[in-house]
Specification:
heterodimer; A: about 260 residues; mainly alpha; two-stranded antiparallel ribbon; 10 helices; 2 strands; B: about 100 residues; about 0% strand
């Protein structure tokens, strides 16, 4: 029982964290804690097979799936605090407390017999006797789970499948579009400068600078721009340098020669 | 034994409250997983109490079904997110009159 009294508070705190954490990733981590503690409780209750399955299937596979989808959907999507139904949270809390109360009363009033324990299965071990049950009386249910698995895999493939409606543009079409853009809008047909060109930093979030010091927004990856993580760090420094050069009144011959080339 | 069952019931209630109050579909889903895990704990505890492995077999089947359910549920969430750009359960209200 020592393991239980150590693990039970941890599990309750983690479960409360699961429902109160603002960010979904924190909820997922709390759930992982609950599942690992649960696995230890299985081990403490003579269920070594379920202990291993809990770790491998739940904490290993299912939690990874949750985290993958979280990354797909966006880690930073946090819950809105707005209640769509008025007083829903208070009502849910009341229902939860009542539900827990009813269940606890039921458990407390139930006639509890002495714990028999699983000692009689020690001879061949837990896994042997579980297999005897699974492939004996429960064989039909076991085969239905196989069918269930196949249906689940097919369902996931159908749901996550996306039909390609428009054919992807070929190299030739892309080239033609680029030249058309140049003719109509004057957009430069060549490559955009890489981030950091002429700038004082060469980080990917630093836009390239034109020779006159204006930043080229397109040089930073579109995803960084969409998240507004590109920052122009050094235009003022460029302005300083330009002012310095103008103040020093450097002979313009050398730069002229470079421009001609 | 009562302690194990009480813990299982508390976890189940916490999961139920989570399903009721959270808006994010993924978190709601994790709360459902918590409820399934709580029932598994009860199954394993009863197996030990009665000296009978059927409870552990039941817990095993719950795990299998939970795995299949997670696969389908997350695929649904991904396809909803793809069309509506949101994983909130409040946004999927197109059928509302």
């Amino acid at each position: 029982m020592t393991a239980f009294w150590i693990l039970a508070p941890v599990m309750l705190v983690a479960a409360l964290g699961l429902i109160f954490a603002r960010k979904a990733v924190h909820s997922a981590l709390c759930l992982a804690v609950v599942m690992i503690c649960l696995a230890m409780l299985y081990a403490a209750q003579d269920a070594p097979f379920l202990f291993v399955v809990q770790i491998i299937v739940y904490t290993g596979a299912i939690m990874m799936l949750f985290l993958f989808v979280l990354m797909l959907v966006g880690v930073e999507t946090s819950d809105s605090v707005v209640e769509t139904i008025k007083g829903q949270r208070a009502a849910a809390a009341v229902v939860g407390v009542l539900f827990a109360g009813v269940l606890a009363t039921a458990v407390a009033q139930a006639v509890s017999t002495a714990v028999v324990g699983l000692g009689k299965f020690d001879e061949h071990g837990n896994v042997y006797h579980l297999a005897e049950l699974l492939f004996g009386p429960y064989i039909v249910a076991f085969q239905f789970t196989a069918a269930l698995m196949i249906v689940a895999v097919l369902g996931a493939m159908v749901l996550a499948h996306r039909e390609i409606l428009v054919a992807a543009p070929t190299q030739q079409e892309l080239q033609a579009k680029r030249m058309r853009d140049y003719a109509e809008f004057g957009r430069h047909p060549g490559n955009a400068p890489t981030p950091g060109v002429f700038a004082l930093h060469n980080a990917v979030d630093t836009p390239a600078l034109l020779p006159d010091g204006t930043p080229v927004a397109e040089s930073v990856a579109a995803s960084l721009r969409a998240r507004q993580q590109d920052e122009v760090r050094d235009t003022h420094e460029v302005a300083d340098v330009v002012a310095e050069i103008e103040a020093a009144d450097i002979e313009p011959t050398a730069t002229e020669g470079q421009e001609d080339a | 034994m009562t302690a194990y069952l009480t813990l299982s019931m508390l976890l189940f209630s916490i999961g139920a409250v989570g399903v009721l109050i959270r808006r994010n579909a993924i978190v709601v889903f994790m709360c459902v997983e918590l409820m399934l895990n709580a029932t598994n704990l009860a199954f394993v505890s009863f197996a030990r109490q009665h000296g009978n492995l059927d409870g552990q077999v039941a817990a095993f089947f719950v795990m299998v079904v939970a795995a299949a359910e997670v696969v389908i549920g997350l695929a649904i969430i991904v396809s909803i997110y793809r069309t509506r750009r949101s994983a909130s359960v409040d946004e999927a209200n197109l059928l509302k009159a």
